[in-house]
Write a structure and sequence with these properties.
It contains twelve helices and 25 strands.
């Protein structure tokens, strides 16, 4: 594997203070400024009793400051995966305080992360990072409750090294931009760990619109960390930026979107397969629809009954982990993704727990029972909700269904990802079950079938 810089040496390696680390518009943050900002925040954190601090900064440079400061201060960084105040308040037991790039209310102790602009000259040496340090991420489990996933720093360093061995030659000389936030493992790995381990400048902002891509400095070369949801919205009437490498992950990239993207950016996408639990498992260079996936070195995926088990240097358990996906292996060891199991689905690259949606629906006033399903119409996947209402709410719905549905959506938005808020609604007398008193979701799907 190619040698990469481990996180413990990001600030202490013998590089000049003028080394560029991140940029936003015309502003550039240097290694010296990073050293100063981390030292300043780490000193403040060392005065705090709490051991576990949630990282909720969407600015990637400030997220980097928060991550390093927490680790150098001997704290555990916790990444809840969002920065919504209402949900952070509900999840207060997961952390002792919050590191954010904006003020937050009702979330316990909040330390707002800022950059001083100091050069870093004369900064006192930081405490060494404990080699056993880890990051905690939270993602929706099959029960709908946040699932805690521990990622040792050594494992994240290993993942960056694994990726560098595959992609470093193509990444050389690039600036790293992305349409995904560092609040999830994909963004953490590819927008923070990979550029920092290879000494590549990272973009502090998240690309949200194709116009932002077209406005990038054409004198630079970029590696674009993106997702299928963003790539399908590209506007080929705009001037393409000089993207040297394009990475997509988080869901399946439809072939027509890969072709359209390649025609505009003049580069075919590389796709990454993996999950928060497993880390990266496989990759493919997408130039045709049935391109196969190739496992990364050291990754073994084997059939186990109707399931598949992955064993990897990035998975802590020696026995590996069972995958949520159905795979079809070829004789050469490559494979195709066939489908997904369980009650966790991916919509717009967001991993959505249907069980959690059902819990939130049952919390709505007047809702006695609920079921949530993934509904596909016109090539687009959304959430459908089946509701059983009490008598008073059912009468309201009969007189003003549209207004009631709008109020339900508004009540759900503080708790759910936008794509998890139901788009389709059905009101029924009771949720149908089979002879074993189990819901048969394939039968529930029929209630959403469109009629001519």
């Amino acid at each position: 594997m190619m040698l990469t810089l481990p996180l413990a040496h990001w600030l202490t390696s013998p590089r000049p203070n003028e080394t560029p680390i991140a940029w936003l518009g015309d502003h550039i943050w240097t290694l010296g400024q990073l050293r100063y900002d981390v030292a300043h925040l780490a000193a403040a954190l060392q005065q705090q009793d709490g051991a576990r601090w949630a990282l909720c900064a969407e600015n990637s440079y400030l997220f980097l400051v928060a991550l390093l400061a927490a680790l150098h201060a001997g704290k555990t960084p916790v990444i809840p995966g969002h920065s919504r105040e209402s949900l952070l308040n509900e999840q207060r037991t997961l952390f002792d305080g919050v590191l954010s790039d904006r003020p937050l209310d009702g979330c316990g102790p909040v330390q707002v992360v800022t950059s001083s602009g100091e050069s870093g000259a004369g900064v006192q040496p930081l405490p060494a990072i404990d080699p056993h340090s880890h990051v905690e991420l939270f993602t929706s489990g099959s029960t709908g409750h946040p699932q805690r996933i521990v990622k040792p720093i050594a494992s994240l360093d290993c993942e960056a090294s694994l990726l560098a061995a595959r992609f470093a030659d193509r990444l050389a000389g690039c600036r790293v931009i992305g349409s995904v936030a560092p609040l999830h493992l994909y963004g953490l790995t590819f927008r923070i760990f990979l550029p920092m381990s290879l000494g590549l400048p990272l973009h502090a902002a998240m690309i949200q619109y194709a116009e932002q891509l077209a406005a990038l400095d054409s004198q630079q070369r970029y590696a674009f960390i993106s997702s299928p949801a963003f790539l399908k919205r590209l506007d080929d009437k705009l001037t393409p930026p000089p993207v040297e490498m394009l990475l997509s992950a988080g869901g399946m990239l439809p072939c027509q979107d890969a072709v359209h993207t390649a025609a505009w950016l003049h580069v075919w996408p590389d796709e990454i397969y993996g999950s928060t639990e497993t880390g990266v498992l496989a990759w493919r260079h997408r130039q045709h629809d049935d391109a196969a996936w190739l496992p990364f070195p050291g990754v073994q995926i084997t059939a186990e009954g109707e399931h598949f088990r992955a064993i990897s240097p990035l998975i802590l358990a020696e026995s590996g982990l069972l995958l949520d996906d159905i795979l079809h292996f070829n004789q050469d060891g490559t494979f195709q993704l066939v489908g997904r199991r369980g009650r966790v689905v991916k919509i717009e690259e967001k991993r959505i727990s249907l069980n959690e949606i059902e819990q939130r629906l049952r919390d709505l006033d007047g809702v006695c029972d609920a079921a949530a399903l993934a509904i596909t119409r016109h090539g687009r996947q959304s959430v459908g909700a089946l509701l059983v209402l009490d008598a008073v709410t059912r009468e309201k719905w009969q007189h003003s269904a549209g207004a009631l549905e709008l109020s339900w959506r508004a009540a759900l938005r503080p708790w759910l990802e936008p794509v998890a808020v139901p788009r389709y609604w059905r009101i029924i007398e009771e949720i149908p079950v089979n002879s074993m008193n189990k819901r048969v979701y394939a039968h529930l799907q029929e209630l959403f079938h469109e009629t001519a």
